[in-house]
Amino acid sequence: MTDPTAYDNADFIPDGHSYFDRWAAAAETFRAQYPAPLQRCDRAYGAGGRQRYDLFLPEGTPNGLFFFIHGGFWRLSGREDWSHLAEGALGNGWAVALPSYPLAPDARISEITRSIVLALEAAARNVPGPILVGGHSAGGHLAMRMVCPDVGLSAAVASRIRGVQPISPLADLTPLVMLPMNATLRIDAEEAERESPISYPEPACAVAIEVGAAERPAFIDQSIRMADHWLKAELTISENRHHFDILDPLCDPESDMVRRLIALSEG
Length: 267
Known about the structure:
The chain is of the alpha/beta class. It contains 9 helices and 8 strands. Strands 1-2-4-3-5-6-7-8 form an 8-stranded mixed sheet, sandwiched between helices.
């Protein structure tokens, strides 16, 4: 039987519940300090109220687009809480798009996946060149779904994806079916199979999976199993990083995580 706390994070991280406010404050500070002419915020990619994305441009011509999808177990948060995570890619000359998306229980995970397809298509129309797709936790799941053959991306956009960087991703949704959170997610066995990236063959593009050594064992197991399934995927297990501070290196243009991200475009 699945431990009902297996995928809980905040209760198992020192001062874990403070991270949500800290992220929102860091994102607000970043937007206030980043040059306004290089921000394209609150752009619609669909008719839904949460179908909006923010785009941040680097100085000069972008090297490409980094499309980052936030986590929150498909139930929480929005693009405005994560703007600061654009800093590392921007510092390497990449434009960064961060979408919001419909949340459970109003949307099923399959509907969220379709929404992210629309967001990626819209962002890609505004930034030419190669695309890197990243995401954290549930966002890592959605990032990997973008390179699954059934997802429905246009051939023009799919061919531009050079790499995927899922961070602490959910690769196999079947364990979630029996968890208390499924009262909100409403995943059934069929959707769990269909929406699990681990159900699909590995993509042609490069994949770099990141997870923290101090994470809950279930998240480490998910990352290891995904790397075993997508055999060409690189797996990095970062010492002393937990499910929340694993994201910190995305703010640093010189960090190893950002270097691994940019290297995906060169493979």
